[in-house]
Amino acid sequence: MKKIGIMGVGNILLRDEGFGVKLLYLMKAKYDFPENVVLIDGGTAGIFLSPEIDHLDKLLIVDVVKAEGRPGDVKIYEKEDFFIDKLPLKLSPHQLGLQEVLLLNEIKGTCPEEIKLIGIIPKSIETGTSLTPELEKKIPEVERLVLEVLKSWGVEPKEKEKPEDPNIWWEKKVKEA
Prior knowledge:
By secondary structure, this protein is an alpha/beta fold. The strands form two sheets. A five-stranded mixed beta sheet has the order 3-1-4-6-5. A two-stranded antiparallel sheet has the order 2-7. The chain has helices spanning 19-30, 50-53, 79-83, 93-108, 133-136, 139-152, and strands at 4-9, 31-32, 37-43, 58-64, 74-78, 114-120, 158-159. Helix content is 31%, strand content 20%.
């Protein structure tokens, strides 16, 4: 059975930069995934993600991208795009790290055979812990795209009868003493 990873990448302290991580938390709370699927909170770990993907056959990444278009536009990239510089200019430091991780894994012979990046154009990467309304409303669309990719890879997560609390801890307000 193919080992599949779903990785949400981004900085949760820079508004829309945290889109990939938030989507990962929401999907983990809403769906049961088969044993061959691993969900990875990539955050801004960059090069330290290499061991996380060593054992994967397929990898689906959700992140923000700097690309032509409007905030909320969704772009899909394939594995070869990482290696032929087809990806747009870097939006943040972790994206550079992600490309380096994939190159490192390619050199080690442990790069997943198939990689897809679902990228979304952010509106704001200013300091803050909540998504802008433009990206918040795109969550269902990107979730659907993730499910479509997984289905094309032979995986269909089962929706939970009662979704769990996604524990989006970085958006919770601190109670005043």
